[in-house]
Task: structure prediction
Amino acid sequence: MPMVTVSISPLQAAGIRDAVDTGTYASSSEIVREALRLWDAARKRDGVYDLRSAANYREKTAGGGRCVADMFADYEAEKHSHN
Result:
């Protein structure tokens, strides 16, 4: 798989470490892949398929829109509410 370097906040890093340490996820890579799947699903659901549309979507949602971390938190909360 291609390697990509990203910067995340200390709070996000701690959350990732906690999820791996508690066994919720096997690795930080698994968490990031799931977050990207959620992001991709949201883009498709909202009809954002090309770069121009994605740029417009980012501009439209920049003032308080939802980010991947928000979608991931919602997913985690829903996953835990069904257990």
Notes: The mean pLDDT is 77.
